[in-house]
Amino acid sequence: MHGLIHRSIEAFLRDSHGDSFWHRICQAAGHDTAGVMPTYLYPDELTHGLISCAAAELGITNVELVEDIGAWLALFEPVRRLLRFGGAGFADFLLSLEEMPDRVEMVAPGIGVPHLSVVARSVGLFEIRAKSTTPLWLAMLSGLLRAMADDYGALVLIEVEQGVHHMPVLKVNLLAAEFARAREFSLVVNP
Amino acid sequence: MMSVDLSVIHRLLPLSVVIGPMGEIRSSGVLMTRLLADETHLQGAFSIGRRKGRGYALPEHIFDAVHEGRDIHLRQRQSPHLRLRGQGAMMGDGVLLILGFGASVVEAVRRLHLTRDDFAASELAIELLFLHEANQQILSELSRFTLRLNEAREQAEAQALTDPLTGLSNRRGMELALARAFEGAGSGAPFAVVQIDLDHFKAVNDTYGHGAGDEVLIEVAAILKKAVRAGDTVARMGGDEFLILLRGECEGAALAALGTRIIQQIEAPISTQSGVCHISASIGAARVGRAEHRRYGQTRVAAENLLRETDAALYRSKREGRGRVTLLDDLSHQKASLPNTQYSG
Question: Strand order in B324-327's β-sheet?
Fold first, then answer.
């Protein structure tokens, strides 16, 4: 996968578990310990190796680890800001997720975020599917959405269900759009 | 006949305005109203944005542009780097202007504290702001990586040019220093080389082992380092061979004196963990002044030639009984049947 994805994994692991943990995982997974090349396309097996090794070391599942990465990303200010461009409120933000792969592709060509479909089933009930063979994208998204809901001050219930052909579906139940105060967001970073 | 309510247009397009023939404001969108402040005429708040149009009165310029189907460029008088760009359409005897910030949108958002509501949904302003910020983040990520690569490269380069045992330059480092002295910037400047070969060093290795040999080499390196100035280069060329590059003018006698002093210091007993070692050194030295620069030229083999000749001087020191200095100058003179001078340590 794209170097920026490895970079996210690296940044999360270093930030949450320390530099030495990251180096240990690199060695275990056979990743260059000198650091991630941000534009390099790493073999998918290496990406999965990183995730599996880190999850095993932490005693959690791959899906749980990736959820944590998603939540961490949304709390990381530069990424949080980019996500907030998606919409004025959480519902808008959810619906704009379909545009996210294209947006990301515009600034990081080749990053390979899978196509996302967002369907509003009824008022406040959204179903999100990812066109991908791995369930990890949706897992990452579920962590990211939980954190972004907090950011928007929305109260949500998020569940991953098995859909047809064992493809997971992310069900987002928006219980209250303005449950708490949204975190500050201005269109430009004020110097 | 007007069939669209102007207030609808102004609501959908926050940067729209209708002006009369004299530039008087008839109605405007929310953001435009803010930019106009309390001005009653468009020219009170804006000037013509493009050089070509200056000198015209603003209303005249706008009406001309509308008739000719040209774009309209405006600058806010208060902050001239805020540029607006758009089109106009006749509306009765006035003009409806639909404007946008173009590339100055980042600046506009910062200065005017604009929010999502200040832009028409059809505008790409939010996309532009997103791209701008995302690009900056990717760039900073890339430059972070470039910085780290550069540090690693510098470190690798320094390692590649350093002798790990003594911390002196290695052969490669000395070759580069010599190439610079001959070919690089400031070439043509005088310099001198001192080639040092340890005597009786093999005995140290044979008697006390390589550990002691290494200690001796480290001690010699320290002596050489202390004997030269900061700008000079000292290298371990391999085994027990050292080379010094002295920058600047150097008299033959001074060069010989330096060599003699080095030999004296090396001949002092060196204590190692395995025992006290006694060694000496033979030296060949050469000065490269203007004449030599001419003779060696600036070719890639200049340094090679110089070292080969200096080697001959060193060999002479060895043959004459070791522990002494031979200058290349004297070697050449001797060839011309002049008396041989040698400096013994």
Answer: B233-238, B241-247, B191-199, B280-288, B324-327, B343-344
